[in-house]
Design brief:
four-stranded mixed β-sheet; homooctamer
Chain lengths: ~250, ~250, ~250, ~250, ~250, ~250, ~250, ~250
């Protein structure tokens, strides 16, 4: 993002007569944009390295979706479409060969490159109940597209702590934990008191009444009395996966 | 509350000439009120049996408070004043001999009768943190005024489950559990998965930020995924004690 | 849940040469899990004694539901499925023989064991309006599956107190009262001033406008000025029944 | 509000030469304003008949308050200052002779005219608890300044219905009822099922926790299942009195 | 509600031998209930005089609705069913002859008695926009069933005050004003500054975004700076009509 | 709105005998209304000059919509119908010739007058994401009906600032900027730090979970730390366009 | 913000040997920053032309405040400090000569330059009540520091529309209107129906109960049914002034 | 957390006669607790490695605080007390030698061990405004107590992006970024689009009006359109630091 070297070289070349004034000007005048494009290029680079861009399907017409997905398929080696209905996928697939659907995660992905290359180390994805599974599958599919190995632990809510305790050893050995819970959302707090891995908590909109579409577990997670919990948006499995990817770094 | 016997007797006496029409009328016309007074009498009776009426101090002027407390001391054998500041107590005490202050529970009580008579069985009062103790002490003092034995378990929050597990045997043997928690308020859910006693959950206004003065633990408790939890108002230690008293019944 | 006896016996047997080191180790190393499994076993035991596990149907695909219900039918003698649509039931029934539907309570139940055995004493289930009946039926069906006798009092809202007063004698004789109310939700407060039974209040999402899907009655019930009321989640008839079951204890 | 008579008279007088063109113009050009002033004049007239303008004290500096009150005392025969602290009153009194303080209603009033003239018929002002009394006194003082007779019924909350039932006959004979309740605010609903008088409900900010400074009783009152209840702002005793005054009309 | 006359007559008749002890007992033993039924009977009386009982249709199955409506048609001379869909009405009509539908008010009514008898004086029903009309029609139909004359003023919102000013004379001459507004709901405040009639404000759930299904106009109306406004629940045209009926009294 | 001249002329004419008393009276008595009608006339004038009246379609029956649209087409040269479904448009079009549909903006418009006359200067309409486009198109279509030139910048959210930076020069040269953003709604804040044009921010209901149907971007925009941002209702593209029109003035 | 000219000149001067490579590098290497500083410089320029930077005082220690204000006084010709307590001002004044306090607007300002130069045209600042005046004075003082003439209209709330109507001619002739209202906040809606000037609405936190510290007027203003209203944060007089300044442009 | 080795050794020693049955029993019977204590011990270990336990001061009496802090100083080598007032610190210091106060972070810490040992790599702590600094200092002090190097970037809000751009290179090279913002809280979103480091966002309660004590930035951060952001509670600098510590792992 920093242009010192570029500026120095242009100055040197101009001074040395290697480039014309015009050419110097053309290069220099775009510097701010190149600088900022750097963000974009860097973004591209991180995508190339396993960070898939995502298209959020709801609220887009099929025509918009198709146009965006075609452009993505042209520009990127790997991307995903979140909150996609199966019927939308079936129509999209006709235009975009190679699109795959993950029904349990409500998403489709596109991946031009070689077969998945599993890295060492895993990320644990744990849910309190079975109704939280779609969010967990969204997180898992996203992680796997980023070549991160996932181990799933579903239905380990605090109502039966033994279900959780049986898994502690494996959870403790994960690089990070994505923890999804609806209703009262107490699982991340409890887990954070038992393992010392970073826990990315995802409130789920499962539940009814005073869970208020995910507000109850959101507040629970934000107020976790055990340190080591950070929170993403309600139902945002994709966002949790991206944050974990960021945490693990490029060199993982 | 039901007046059949009274009506029958009046009819019989009137028929038998034992009472005049006027007197019959006077007695019968008040029947609805007597019926309803029955509720009051019954209420008195339950008070007499250990259920203390409570005066909520905030928002009352000292003059109002004093007048009410004097009337209470005249009419009742036992009552308490909740959310009382010490300086208020010190002034009240001058007018009402025999008033006792429980500073850690922010309440005063008045008890004309004989020394406390402990019943068999105990109620457990458990808090997640130390900041929840005033609410717990309000509940405990109320229970004790009702001759119910209390066992306190403070600072057993889910951040360190071992603190909770050490107490499970005793908690399991309690007749009921009053469980106070602020911040994310996950303790009742976790506890309900571990013991099979009825848990009366009290959200505490401790915490900051997204605990929103007790809304976060309130929602957590209402959404408890483990069955066996019912909830009272934020910081309402007195209410939890009364509900438990009701549960245990007169004959406890 | 407590392992003293087990530890003592293993130590004794090992000392006495009755068991090998390996066997001692294998038994002892699992102790923490056995301890925790104890919770599970105890849970099972309580289920066996009348406490049905519940499956919450919304947000589960039919495939998930079917898999869970089959597993439940294999493991448990009695369980129920709440918030089940009739069309879901009709499909489930094909896989799970013996499943019964309670349309007015929007639930299905499975009960392998002998015919219902009514206990002495009853729990009153009372609603303010007719629109609250589905929640009441969910509570009633749950109680009955736990062999607890139910007496229903529907449409006794505070708009016509005489409807309530006619029932007071019977309400007063119940072991506990589950009280469901939507709109302003004042019934539990009023009832708590009239009877001295513990009242488990269930806010209902009936009503419109400023009832905000049950928030209005929820707040009303939490703020009940008459002591003796505790609250469960909006529309949570099942939870109210479980809490009452817990209150009554195993030995009821 | 309608200026027909004025216009007709000016036209007549101008035609008859009784007033000059200039004077006619001056009077007529202000007609739209006079028309609108009519509202003000009419307002004045209603004030004179018992409808006092009110100054809301909070958020005003003493200087602003003093200036406004002096202007009011000059222009009006009767007005009141609501939510006034006693120390503010004591300073104001130095500038404005004849100002009276009603400490229990947290207001001061000014009344140049003859002694109060009680009308036939009364308005009942009823509170659920003692903490609601300041709001009730604000309503009562406002009504009395409007020459409306008040009968107060304090501490009649639904926790002890007999306290309410004892008063029903008198409440039924009132022209209207102002009903103030904090905490769960169920009193207006219950009352509306028992009497057929119009009930103006005032939610009070008394209570704590989930009463949310008056939101709980506000929602309760808006959702009243018994018809015949309308609601004003939290703690707005003055507004309830004004609405009742409007209901009773000028000719009362 | 008061049973003096009944008690006196029974006593007299018993005394005079006109009725047997048994009969006297049977009549008297029900007195508390009769007393309370008095509310019901009085309710009936008021219905007969123009106060229709209402059935709220949403959340009731057709079977429940039909059963209730048949019972109502048997017991009452006049009642209405609010928030009724046309298709529900068409089915109900087959069972209940004489049911009439008011599509613009989304309600049906039943009226056994003679043709409507218009009283002197009218109630104004005014809306801010055209989308508020269904609520206005619900209020109007309810008023008319109570033999109260209605004058409708639709689409007079504050965006074009002249539309309002043209109607002021007629509004001023109404006995009371029901004022319905969605979006920002400013109409009642503005109207209250212009006329001195009591205004029953009904927030409407019309609007979008930050009107939050009627919360915005509800808050606006509760905070009206002009005195003389009281508020009922969002969209509650029926409730506004009942309150006005109560205000006008039986003798209107 | 000011009637001085009219009053003076009537006085003069009456004085000079040019008009009769009766006629003078008739004209003068309506002055308040004429005054207020002036607002209406002025309103009409502004409409005629490019300010289209709008009909908000949701919550209106087709019959109401048709009646209103026919009346509008008769009275106005130009108006629009917002939030219109295509199927509604197709039916409306049969009655109202010349109605045009803008599907991407979910609106129809009617314009009797000559072809659009573009003014100098443009208003920029910028969105953070593609899901915000319908709101942007509503704003754009409204502006164009008011003869204001629009330049659209879609999908410039802060996640990739370079997309925004590429447009800064053009944004800076716009007369005003309408900026639509959902999710976290940070675009207006960021933009306001970069350009010195007035920014009318429109929160969009796009997003999910904790965006709460537009509350999150609404709060973000209201709290913008960069000065120069004002906010309209969630999804209110029409309102943003009208405010901009007002800002630019008639003489633009 | 665009650096073409700078780049071109540096290239030219370097080419022409007028500046050394080093100097060229030093200037060019900062170009991205200069580019971005351009925003800052432009900001400065706009400040110089009347746009004062503001320091928000609350939440800053006196030491922080003093340090910031000294730096500001060194760098800027004009700035202001909002929400400043008088005692803070008195201490600040000791360090920063030339600081002026505007007590009614709760702000201080610093202005090195020549006496105020009033521009043609004015901005109207109007309040609904007297309690809204501090916000109005904050807006007015900010506008005046930007050399924009202000005309104040205080206490023109909709409860007495004539107070508003008297001012319409002057309001209509303003370049823009800043309209502050608490309680129900209806003034901007009403005003927008009467004048065709752009109205920047500021909700005020004045009021009590259901005004919820400004939420009620905020919602009212966002839902204004009359077009031409945009809203800034609660009590944000400074922000309203800045937006208006942006609207009027540099060339005003 | 797993006790295999302990169990094996006890079994071995008992078998080998090295320990008595009694001793074996005593050690084994505590195994579940030791197991769970393991969490505590592990916790201790992590503390020793840089993870300080924290005492939250508000809501604790001085006596409670003193007792807890003395116990902590006895048991731990390092801990901190958050949200501590200076006067509380001054009293605590008398009992607990070696307590240090960090006034800008509103916390005190205790550290028995050797001087701080800086690790390689740093964590960036960045704030949007100066009012957010106390939260940033709480995070920084916590990180430094955990031997993590901190680089602070204060006052880099999005209103002047150049302030942020100047820091990008350094921010990009941090191991993680803690980003604190109040008001609209847009900084984390913008930052996440520019750097590819994990960003732990802390909403600050700075701001006023519609920032609602931190709700606005909380929602903004949860809805961040740029991936790579996770959120902790409002003002929770300590929690952000702990989460980052967890992320970096023990081996950092």
């Amino acid at each position: 993002m920093f242009t010192e070297k570029v500026v120095k070289r242009v100055v040197r070349e101009l001074r040395g007569g290697k480039i014309s004034s015009n050419r110097a000007f053309r290069r220099l005048k775009n510097l701010p944009y190149e600088t900022l494009s750097a963000a974009r290029l860097d973004h591209h680079r991180s995508i190339r390295k396993g960070f898939p861009e995502a298209v959020y399907a709801p609220g887009k017409s099929f025509e918009q979706l198709e146009k965006i997905v075609l452009a993505m398929a042209h520009a990127h080696k790997c991307f995903l479409i979140t909150r996609l209905e199966e019927f939308q996928f079936l129509r999209l697939k006709e235009s975009v060969a190679g699109l795959k659907f993950v029904p349990e995660g409500r998403l489709a992905y596109y991946r031009k490159s070689a077969p998945f290359r599993k890295r060492r180390g895993t990320v644990a994805v744990i849910t309190a109940g079975t109704a939280d599974i779609p969010v967990a599958e969204e997180a898992s599919a996203t992680l796997e597209l980023m070549d991160i190995q996932v181990k799933k632990f579903f239905d380990c809510g605090v109502a039966g702590l033994h279900r959780l305790f049986d898994q502690l050893r494996e959870l403790q050995s994960a690089k990070a934990i994505i923890c999804i819970a609806g209703m009262e959302g107490a699982l991340p707090s409890v887990l954070a008191g038992l393992v010392d891995r970073p826990i990315v908590a995802v409130p789920a909109s499962t539940g009814y009444g005073a869970s208020f579409e995910g507000i109850a577990p959101l507040l629970t997670m934000l107020n976790s009395c055990a340190p080591g919990v950070a929170v993403v948006n309600i139902d945002n499995g994709y966002g949790a996966a991206c944050f974990v990817r960021q945490m693990l770094g490029k060199s993982q």
